[in-house]
Write a structure and sequence with these properties.
The chain has 19 helices and 12 strands. It is α/β, with parallel strands linked by helices. The strands form 3 sheets. The protein has an 8-stranded mixed sheet with strand order 2-1-4-5-3-6-7-10, sandwiched between helices. A two-stranded antiparallel sheet has the order 8-9. Strands 11-12 form a two-stranded antiparallel ribbon. Helix 16 runs antiparallel to helix 18 (593-635). The longest helix has 80 residues, at 481-560. The chain is elongated, with a radius of gyration of 38 Å. The two termini are 58 Å apart.
Length: 689
Amino acid sequence: MDSPMCLVENADGELHVVPGAIKYLMGLNQQVVVVAVVGLYRTGKSYLMNKLAGKRKGFALGATIQSKTKGIWMWCVPHPEKRDHTLVLLDTEGLGDVEKGDSQNDAWIFSLAILLSSTLVYNSRGTIDNQAVENLQYVSELTERIKVNSSSAASSSHDDEEGGDAQFVQFFPNFVWAIRDFTLLLEIDGRNVTEDEYLEHSLELRKGGGKKILMYNLPRECIRNYFPSRKCFVFPTPTTPANMPHLDSMDEADLCGSFRKVADTFCRFIFQESRTKTVKGGHKVTGRMLGHLVNAYVETIAKGSVPCLENAVLAMAQIENQAAVDEGLVVYQRGMEEVKALFPVAMGQISAHHLRSDHQAMQAFMKRSFKDENGDFLKALAVAIAKHYADLLIQNEDASEKRCAALLEKLSAPMAQKTKEGIYTTPGGYELYCSHHDNMVAQYRAEPDKGVRAEEILEQFLREKSLEKNSILQADKKLTENEKKIHEEQEKRALAEQAVKMEAEKQHQLEKLIQEKERSHQEGICQLEAKMVQEAKEKQQELERALDSKLHEQEKLMAKGFTEKEAAMKEEIQSLREEEAKREEKEEQSRNFRAIAQGVIESVSNGLGHYFNYKKAREQRKAIVFKEQVRYDLKSGAVGNIPDMERMALKQDKMATPKLKTGAVDNSKDTTLPKVNTGTTDKSHGSEV
């Protein structure tokens, strides 16, 4: 991004997302580190953002008493230290702008900055005195403007007070206070202190219970309780008052050396310490996901409701998981294009491509998905892949049938011509016919790349030719009746042997499908376990960060003798630990890998049901065609030429046409699964029956 763009527009006191900025974020697949700056208007916030972007110009600085930044502006730049990360800089509209006259609007902008960032920079001028802390009044209103859990949205304010602080510290950004134009000495009671010690001293609580003390402590307690870490930087004046209006056009070398030193230290800290943006549950956020969050939060505020972290994450998870399904399917389809171009191929070849593409698709899905706790989206992907694979199996079989049929037609053409010329109807013709017939079959078997139906198509061909062969046998006057019977038995054995080869071919295909399903099952369990372990680890890190913050705060309260506050802090720590215990128990109950994996297997079976239904319908269609051929031969008086086993089958069947059942697998039960954009039209092969 060459220059900043408006992300959230503030027009007439109403907030709206800017479509162009959202579109940019939606195309950003890298994880993001989000740094937002807030503070009173005309305090030099934009300069810090330009410095972080490594640019002299970008965010409007302005040199008048009017605020330049309206709404929230965004600048996305490559992160200077984190590989494959994007640094998202958010410059917010100045708080307390007299031209707005709307503190509610300021409060929402402040809340959005907290919700969207992983590091929040509060920019002020002068010193950290009581007025500077009171200017942070919005921090004490956060329990009214941000909800953590969806259940708390309907809870009472008392419930919020009970658990709000403990929950906020898990999900809020790190807090950095940047003090501009600082002219005092960093001393407390004659002792030199660091910038951080200066901040902590300014945030110390006063003992007592009067209203004045409560009001004094309130914003300080909120800062201490809500943000997991605090850092302070004090910036001296960068140049003379006369040059301040021209700050954006001045060379770095012309700025005060001590100012440049602090600015460089500030940038180095932000680059190294600002963590990747996460959402509730510890899941790392990409630019695309940040776009979803911006949409969700701003739309909620526009409706007059309170943004809820849990609801926003659940809504984003639905969108992202559906996109993960679609992306996984595209990866699978792309992986199968190579083998599709080679149809017909052997079962082993298409199976190898399927397993590899299925693995790649699952990897793509796992990388993008999160909070798919019941495995519904994983099942949806499994169904989509199985259906696409079933279509490819059918296409491969059809291609094999066409190639084999064309090959047999080509190889049998000379024999057909000789039959037409009556060459085989002379005495000794049967022996000549058998010689040519065996030679043709040998040529057929020697031909490579016939595909998965080579033996089946040959079996059909031989069975069809058996009528012709038997007719030539009966017409050969050179043979005795006894010899004819011997040849008939030999033909029956040959047909039976070919039928065995055909069944072996089908059995091999079936075994391959079973092996594929088992291998996919085991791999799916491994990937699912790894995914859930990673998500549990992220949640644990989120909790530990909150606990560390609370324990650190507890130590400070103990050292200062705030017994009552320390007791309240202990309760918060205990609450966090109990919450974690409940979460682990709930996750342990729901983390039934085998049950989810079994559901995936059933989904795969449903998807492959399309293929098995097609095969069943094809077998039934083949039986009908054969019986119709026999019926025709009966009517034409050729019943004597029909082999005994076929005549028996005809007699038993009574020429009844079987009713085809295409619903062996009930796919109507899949209505609870997410929809999948397959990108192809599902052709019903059953309609050919």
